[in-house]
Design brief:
Elements: H1 7-106
């Protein structure tokens, strides 16, 4: 006669497999919770880096605009110095011309 396996043995095997499945599910849930915490941490770091990047970009834009304005002011100053120089040269030339005409015309 063939032996019929006992129901207790099959039930024990099923329970053992079920325990393994439950253990695996528990570990998966723990890993998922851990990964969720890491994801939240990375999201916070990303937001922090994004804020820092915005601040750096704003500082760069302000610096660039200020540098351009200072360059324009510097160019304006040199233009004013050049204009004053031309007036001085014109005045000196006029005085020298007057002196020469007086000297040549008076002789």
């Amino acid at each position: 006669m063939t032996e019929i396996p006992s129901r207790d043995t099959q039930l024990d095997r099923v329970e053992g497999k079920l325990d393994q499945v439950l253990d695996r599910l528990t570990r998966m849930e723990e890993r998922q919770a851990s990964q969720g915490a890491q994801l939240d941490s990375h999201a916070m770091q990303l937001a922090d880096h994004s804020q820092r990047l915005r601040e750096v970009e704003l500082a760069h834009a302000v610096s660039k605009a200020t540098t351009t304005q200072q360059g324009q002011r510097l160019f304006g100053r040199w233009a004013a110095v050049g204009a004053v120089g031309l007036v001085v040269i014109g005045t000196v030339g006029s005085v020298i011309g007057k002196l020469l005409t007086d000297m040549l015309g008076g002789s």
